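Retro notes
What went well: the complex prediction finally ran end to end.
Inputs used:
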Amino acid sequence: MAGSETQAHLPALAEHERKEVGHLLQLTLVELIALSLIGKQLHWNIVGPGFRELHLHLDELTDEWRELSDVVAERAVALGYSPDGRAPAIVEQSELRPVDAGPTQVPKAIRERIERLGDLDLTSQDVLIEVTRTLEKQLWMLRSSL
Ligand SMILES: [Fe+2]
């Protein structure tokens, strides 16, 4: 638990707001880490026509998911919330199912969090907007290549 001196240097949110925002960021973090694991799994295991292009594309997507997970985790830390990116947290907290989770579910869940963050913390909302913008751009690029 942070001492009162440390608390004084945290962004000006109420303690319960900080916890809720941290929780919403945490849920997004584990999804992004799960996505990056799925991305690598597919990167290694896909076979068939178009292999090379998809193999390389999956690595680009994975890099972007990893970068976003870093932005999300560091926003949580800035709020005084400890993000948990350990393997058990990914298994327990991410609702993504391997491979068939479908990228469409992620923006929907994140959009609900974005709305809630609009009431709590606009700076964290901006982080999740960046996540959504990237995921939707990725979806567009995938759609266009099908
Ligand atoms: Fe590789």
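What we learned: DSSP finds six helices and no strands in the chain.
What to try next: split runs per interface for comparison.
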